[in-house]
Amino acid sequence: MEPGAVCALIFLSLMIFPFYFQGKFTLLRDTRTDGSFLVHHFLSFYLRAGCKVCFVALLQSFSHYNIVAQKLGVSLTAARERGQLVFLEGLKSCLDLLFGEESSELGQPSPLQFLSESASNLKALFDFVQTSLTPTDSDSWKGPVLLVDDLSVLLSLGAAPVAVLDFIHYCRVTVCSQLKGNIVVLVHSNEDSEDEENDLVVNSLCHHSDLILWVEGLATGFCKDVHGEIKIIKRVSLELTAEQDHVQIYQYKIQDKNVTFFARGLSAAVL
Protein backbone atom coordinates (compact mmCIF):
# COMPACT_ATOMS: atom_id res chain seq x y z
CA MET A 1 0.00 0.00 0.00
CA GLU A 2 1.24 3.48 -0.79
CA PRO A 3 2.26 5.81 2.10
CA GLY A 4 -0.64 8.14 1.30
CA ALA A 5 -3.11 5.31 1.72
CA VAL A 6 -1.66 4.48 5.12
CA CYS A 7 -1.96 8.13 6.18
CA ALA A 8 -5.56 8.26 5.04
CA LEU A 9 -6.48 5.12 6.97
CA ILE A 10 -4.68 6.30 10.10
CA PHE A 11 -6.43 9.68 9.84
CA LEU A 12 -9.94 8.27 9.72
CA SER A 13 -9.10 5.54 12.22
CA LEU A 14 -8.08 8.18 14.75
CA MET A 15 -11.36 9.99 14.12
CA ILE A 16 -13.49 6.92 14.88
CA PHE A 17 -11.28 5.07 17.38
CA PRO A 18 -13.20 6.20 20.50
CA PHE A 19 -16.30 4.62 18.96
CA TYR A 20 -14.66 1.37 17.94
CA PHE A 21 -15.50 -1.18 20.65
CA GLN A 22 -18.53 0.51 22.20
CA GLY A 23 -21.53 -0.62 20.17
CA LYS A 24 -21.91 2.49 18.01
CA PHE A 25 -23.92 3.40 14.94
CA THR A 26 -21.96 5.30 12.27
CA LEU A 27 -23.76 7.06 9.43
CA LEU A 28 -21.93 7.77 6.17
CA ARG A 29 -23.80 10.48 4.27
CA ASP A 30 -22.92 11.98 0.90
CA THR A 31 -24.32 15.02 -0.90
CA ARG A 32 -23.40 16.13 -4.44
CA THR A 33 -20.60 13.54 -4.52
CA ASP A 34 -19.84 9.84 -4.04
CA GLY A 35 -18.94 8.78 -0.51
CA SER A 36 -18.29 5.12 -1.32
CA PHE A 37 -14.57 5.51 -0.59
CA LEU A 38 -15.56 5.60 3.09
CA VAL A 39 -17.26 2.22 2.75
CA HIS A 40 -14.04 0.71 1.41
CA HIS A 41 -12.10 2.24 4.30
CA PHE A 42 -14.39 0.83 6.99
CA LEU A 43 -14.53 -2.58 5.31
CA SER A 44 -10.74 -2.94 5.21
CA PHE A 45 -10.38 -1.34 8.66
CA TYR A 46 -12.67 -3.81 10.43
CA LEU A 47 -11.31 -6.84 8.56
CA ARG A 48 -7.78 -5.89 9.58
CA ALA A 49 -8.97 -5.48 13.16
CA GLY A 50 -10.15 -9.10 13.19
CA CYS A 51 -13.88 -8.34 13.41
CA LYS A 52 -16.68 -10.51 12.02
CA VAL A 53 -18.24 -8.45 9.20
CA CYS A 54 -21.66 -8.83 7.59
CA PHE A 55 -21.57 -6.73 4.41
CA VAL A 56 -24.96 -5.99 2.84
CA ALA A 57 -23.74 -4.77 -0.56
CA LEU A 58 -26.69 -3.44 -2.51
CA LEU A 59 -24.84 -1.18 -4.92
CA GLN A 60 -21.91 -3.07 -6.47
CA SER A 61 -20.75 -6.62 -7.15
CA PHE A 62 -18.39 -8.67 -5.00
CA SER A 63 -15.64 -8.38 -7.61
CA HIS A 64 -15.84 -4.57 -7.49
CA TYR A 65 -15.36 -4.42 -3.72
CA ASN A 66 -12.66 -7.08 -3.86
CA ILE A 67 -10.63 -5.17 -6.45
CA VAL A 68 -10.71 -1.98 -4.35
CA ALA A 69 -9.93 -3.93 -1.17
CA GLN A 70 -6.88 -5.49 -2.80
CA LYS A 71 -5.52 -2.00 -3.45
CA LEU A 72 -5.87 -1.41 0.30
CA GLY A 73 -4.07 -4.66 1.09
CA VAL A 74 -7.11 -6.80 2.01
CA SER A 75 -8.49 -9.88 0.26
CA LEU A 76 -12.26 -10.20 0.55
CA THR A 77 -12.10 -13.65 -1.02
CA ALA A 78 -9.77 -14.89 1.72
CA ALA A 79 -11.87 -13.21 4.43
CA ARG A 80 -15.03 -14.88 3.13
CA GLU A 81 -13.36 -18.30 2.90
CA ARG A 82 -12.19 -18.18 6.51
CA GLY A 83 -15.66 -17.14 7.67
CA GLN A 84 -14.75 -13.62 8.76
CA LEU A 85 -16.80 -11.93 6.02
CA VAL A 86 -20.43 -12.70 5.20
CA PHE A 87 -21.22 -11.00 1.91
CA LEU A 88 -24.71 -10.38 0.54
CA GLU A 89 -24.46 -9.52 -3.15
CA GLY A 90 -27.65 -7.54 -3.56
CA LEU A 91 -27.48 -7.21 -7.34
CA LYS A 92 -27.30 -10.97 -7.85
CA SER A 93 -29.97 -11.68 -5.24
CA CYS A 94 -32.38 -9.25 -6.92
CA LEU A 95 -31.91 -10.87 -10.31
CA ASP A 96 -32.33 -14.36 -8.86
CA LEU A 97 -35.58 -13.36 -7.20
CA LEU A 98 -37.03 -11.44 -10.13
CA PHE A 99 -36.27 -14.23 -12.63
CA GLY A 100 -37.16 -17.04 -10.23
CA GLU A 101 -33.77 -18.73 -10.40
CA GLU A 102 -33.34 -18.92 -6.64
CA SER A 103 -35.85 -18.12 -3.92
CA SER A 104 -34.07 -19.58 -0.93
CA GLU A 105 -30.73 -20.81 0.30
CA LEU A 106 -30.33 -23.79 2.61
CA GLY A 107 -34.08 -23.75 3.19
CA GLN A 108 -34.06 -20.12 4.34
CA PRO A 109 -35.90 -17.24 2.62
CA SER A 110 -33.85 -14.90 0.48
CA PRO A 111 -32.71 -11.82 2.46
CA LEU A 112 -34.44 -9.67 -0.18
CA GLN A 113 -37.64 -11.70 -0.13
CA PHE A 114 -39.73 -8.50 0.09
CA LEU A 115 -39.19 -8.00 -3.66
CA SER A 116 -41.49 -10.90 -4.43
CA GLU A 117 -44.08 -10.08 -1.78
CA SER A 118 -46.84 -7.49 -1.63
CA ALA A 119 -45.89 -6.33 1.87
CA SER A 120 -42.76 -4.24 2.39
CA ASN A 121 -41.25 -6.43 5.08
CA LEU A 122 -37.50 -6.54 5.71
CA LYS A 123 -37.67 -9.28 8.36
CA ALA A 124 -35.83 -11.75 6.08
CA LEU A 125 -32.97 -9.26 5.69
CA PHE A 126 -32.80 -8.73 9.44
CA ASP A 127 -32.81 -12.51 10.03
CA PHE A 128 -29.88 -12.80 7.60
CA VAL A 129 -27.92 -10.16 9.52
CA GLN A 130 -28.75 -11.68 12.90
CA THR A 131 -27.77 -15.19 11.80
CA SER A 132 -24.55 -13.95 10.19
CA LEU A 133 -23.32 -12.01 13.23
CA THR A 134 -24.53 -14.13 16.14
CA PRO A 135 -21.32 -15.71 17.50
CA THR A 136 -20.84 -19.46 17.66
CA ASP A 137 -18.61 -21.52 19.91
CA SER A 138 -15.97 -21.76 17.18
CA ASP A 139 -15.81 -18.01 16.51
CA SER A 140 -12.68 -16.16 17.58
CA TRP A 141 -13.47 -12.76 16.04
CA LYS A 142 -13.15 -9.61 18.15
CA GLY A 143 -16.63 -8.21 17.50
CA PRO A 144 -19.50 -8.12 15.00
CA VAL A 145 -19.89 -5.38 12.41
CA LEU A 146 -22.78 -4.67 10.03
CA LEU A 147 -21.87 -2.67 6.92
CA VAL A 148 -24.56 -1.51 4.45
CA ASP A 149 -23.85 0.05 1.03
CA ASP A 150 -26.16 1.72 0.47
CA LEU A 151 -29.41 1.94 2.41
CA SER A 152 -31.06 4.23 -0.16
CA VAL A 153 -31.21 1.31 -2.61
CA LEU A 154 -33.83 -0.42 -0.44
CA LEU A 155 -36.15 2.53 -1.03
CA SER A 156 -35.51 2.32 -4.77
CA LEU A 157 -36.42 -1.37 -4.65
CA GLY A 158 -39.81 -0.55 -3.16
CA ALA A 159 -39.26 -0.83 0.59
CA ALA A 160 -41.26 1.68 2.63
CA PRO A 161 -39.33 4.23 4.76
CA VAL A 162 -40.92 2.84 7.92
CA ALA A 163 -39.76 -0.67 7.00
CA VAL A 164 -36.21 0.58 6.39
CA LEU A 165 -36.12 2.44 9.70
CA ASP A 166 -37.56 -0.59 11.51
CA PHE A 167 -34.84 -2.76 9.96
CA ILE A 168 -32.12 -0.39 11.20
CA HIS A 169 -33.75 -0.18 14.64
CA TYR A 170 -33.77 -3.96 15.10
CA CYS A 171 -30.21 -4.20 13.79
CA ARG A 172 -29.09 -1.59 16.32
CA VAL A 173 -30.77 -3.46 19.16
CA THR A 174 -29.19 -6.75 18.11
CA VAL A 175 -25.74 -5.71 16.89
CA CYS A 176 -25.01 -2.64 19.01
CA SER A 177 -26.89 -3.31 22.25
CA GLN A 178 -26.91 -7.10 22.56
CA LEU A 179 -23.73 -8.12 20.73
CA LYS A 180 -21.79 -4.91 21.52
CA GLY A 181 -20.81 -4.55 17.88
CA ASN A 182 -20.90 -1.69 15.40
CA ILE A 183 -23.02 -0.64 12.43
CA VAL A 184 -21.86 1.47 9.49
CA VAL A 185 -24.44 2.58 6.93
CA LEU A 186 -24.10 4.70 3.78
CA VAL A 187 -27.02 6.83 2.56
CA HIS A 188 -27.28 9.34 -0.28
CA SER A 189 -28.90 12.72 0.20
CA ASN A 190 -29.61 15.76 -1.94
CA GLU A 191 -30.64 19.01 -0.34
CA ASP A 192 -32.46 20.04 -3.52
CA SER A 193 -34.21 16.72 -4.02
CA GLU A 194 -37.97 16.24 -3.73
CA ASP A 195 -37.58 12.62 -2.61
CA GLU A 196 -39.46 12.90 0.67
CA GLU A 197 -39.06 9.22 1.53
CA ASN A 198 -35.27 9.32 1.29
CA ASP A 199 -35.17 12.62 3.22
CA LEU A 200 -37.24 11.03 5.99
CA VAL A 201 -34.85 8.10 6.30
CA VAL A 202 -31.71 10.27 6.18
CA ASN A 203 -32.98 12.77 8.77
CA SER A 204 -34.14 10.01 11.11
CA LEU A 205 -30.78 8.25 10.93
CA CYS A 206 -28.93 11.50 11.59
CA HIS A 207 -30.87 11.96 14.84
CA HIS A 208 -29.97 8.48 16.07
CA SER A 209 -26.34 8.20 14.90
CA ASP A 210 -23.39 8.21 17.28
CA LEU A 211 -21.01 9.36 14.55
CA ILE A 212 -21.77 11.05 11.22
CA LEU A 213 -19.26 11.31 8.39
CA TRP A 214 -20.89 13.70 5.91
CA VAL A 215 -19.13 13.97 2.56
CA GLU A 216 -20.12 16.90 0.34
CA GLY A 217 -19.04 18.12 -3.07
CA LEU A 218 -17.56 21.58 -3.28
CA ALA A 219 -20.15 24.35 -3.50
CA THR A 220 -17.93 26.10 -6.06
CA GLY A 221 -17.99 23.12 -8.41
CA PHE A 222 -15.36 20.74 -9.74
CA CYS A 223 -11.71 21.08 -8.75
CA LYS A 224 -9.03 18.60 -9.77
CA ASP A 225 -6.99 19.14 -6.60
CA VAL A 226 -9.81 19.21 -4.02
CA HIS A 227 -12.63 16.71 -4.54
CA GLY A 228 -14.84 17.65 -1.61
CA GLU A 229 -15.26 18.20 2.10
CA ILE A 230 -15.88 15.75 4.93
CA LYS A 231 -17.68 16.83 8.07
CA ILE A 232 -17.03 14.61 11.11
CA ILE A 233 -19.81 14.94 13.69
CA LYS A 234 -19.39 13.16 17.01
CA ARG A 235 -22.85 13.05 18.61
CA VAL A 236 -21.96 13.61 22.27
CA SER A 237 -25.42 15.18 22.71
CA LEU A 238 -26.88 11.65 22.61
CA GLU A 239 -25.27 11.01 25.98
CA LEU A 240 -27.69 13.50 27.57
CA THR A 241 -24.93 15.88 28.58
CA ALA A 242 -24.80 19.64 28.27
CA GLU A 243 -22.07 19.39 25.64
CA GLN A 244 -22.72 20.18 22.00
CA ASP A 245 -21.78 17.83 19.18
CA HIS A 246 -18.12 17.93 18.16
CA VAL A 247 -17.74 18.96 14.52
CA GLN A 248 -14.54 18.86 12.45
CA ILE A 249 -14.34 19.75 8.76
CA TYR A 250 -11.59 18.68 6.34
CA GLN A 251 -11.13 18.66 2.60
CA TYR A 252 -9.92 15.66 0.67
CA LYS A 253 -8.56 14.45 -2.65
CA ILE A 254 -9.19 10.93 -3.93
CA GLN A 255 -6.34 9.26 -5.82
CA ASP A 256 -5.97 5.79 -7.30
CA LYS A 257 -4.93 3.98 -4.13
CA ASN A 258 -5.34 6.55 -1.38
CA VAL A 259 -7.27 9.56 -0.11
CA THR A 260 -5.47 12.67 1.13
CA PHE A 261 -7.09 14.77 3.87
CA PHE A 262 -6.16 18.34 4.80
CA ALA A 263 -7.60 21.40 6.51
CA ARG A 264 -9.69 23.70 4.36
CA GLY A 265 -7.53 25.95 2.21
CA LEU A 266 -4.36 23.96 2.91
CA SER A 267 -4.27 21.79 -0.22
CA ALA A 268 -0.75 21.25 -1.56
CA ALA A 269 -1.91 22.67 -4.88
CA VAL A 270 -2.91 25.91 -3.17
CA LEU A 271 0.20 26.21 -1.03
Gyration radius, in Å: 19 Å
* Low-pLDDT segments: 1-10
Q: Helix proportion of residues, in percent?
A: 25-40%
How many strands in all? 11
Count of helical stretches: 9
Widest sheet: strand order? 3-2-6-7-1-8-9-10-11
**In angstroms, what separates the terminal alpha carbons?**
26 Å
**For the residues shown, what is the average pLDDT?**
83
What string gives the helices and strands in order?
A: HEHEHHEHEEHEHHEHEEEE
Structural category: alpha/beta
| β-strand amount | 15-25%
What structural keywords apply?
nine-stranded mixed beta sheet, 271 residues, alpha/beta, two-stranded antiparallel sheet, 9 helices
What does the model show?
The model is unreliable at about 1-10 (pLDDT under 50). This protein has a nine-stranded mixed sheet, with helices on both faces. It starts with a helix and ends in a 9-residue tail after the last strand. About 35% of the residues are buried. The chain has helices at about 5-15, 35-50, 60-70, 75-80, 90-100, 125-135, 150-155, 160-180, 195-210; strands at about 25-30, 50-55, 85-90, 105, 110, 145-150, 180-190, 210-215, 230-235, 245-255, 260. Helices cover about 35% and strands about 25% of the residues. It is built from nine helices and eleven strands.
